Amino acid sequence: MVAYFNPEMYADQVLKAERWRDKLKVFEQDINRRLSFASNRRTKHSVYAEIDRFVRKKDLLRCIDIQIDERPRKNVKFFFVNLAINEEEWFKRHQFDGFCILIANAICALPAGDLCRLYRSKDIVEKDFQVIKSVLQVGPVRHRTDLKVKAHVSICMISLLLERLLEKKLGRTYSARRAMEILHTCHLNKFESEGESLYAITELNRDQHAILKQTQMTKLSDDDYLLGRISKKEML
Length: 236
Fold this sequence. Notes:
This protein is α+β, with helices and mostly antiparallel strands. Helices cover about 55% and strands about 15% of the residues.
């Protein structure tokens, strides 16, 4: 059994907790706004029931101090809600954010650090399938024959491989997706003039030059190089 701290999980849990506190404040303002209407006929029990349903969604009833006061206004009484975070209970609930317990088979003799790295490496496979399903849209596959389905999946896997190779070449400077976003304005432009085809490359900015240099593809920004390649292809 290994206890370890995951900083990404910690950051995600902290952000979710802060968002929930913001939602609680918005809920408090909204219910007080509705209770302030002259036509409101809510009972204290129904107000508490609505608050209870909202808080129980996150199982945080113990973390919230609920106070419902009755206030007079122009000879009419209305309810006012105050929802306060019980900081002591909130701390108890979140004091172990980011911590995990990893339980392995007793015959596994790996050191704690190696065991954690082995477990976390499974995320790479899960993220690859997520990319294939979302970005590359492997499903639903609109093919009816086994051959076409295999071809479609093969193209998706090759695309994923190219993305991973691109990220490896880029290192930590850019992600593959960010690099493609930066490069998407680069085009080979074709102009027709008196029956003759002229080609020109979109002028690159500094970031685009940097990406091509890091991926060893600076030839793609060379007009003469591309023009020679295009001319040979057209002659064929």
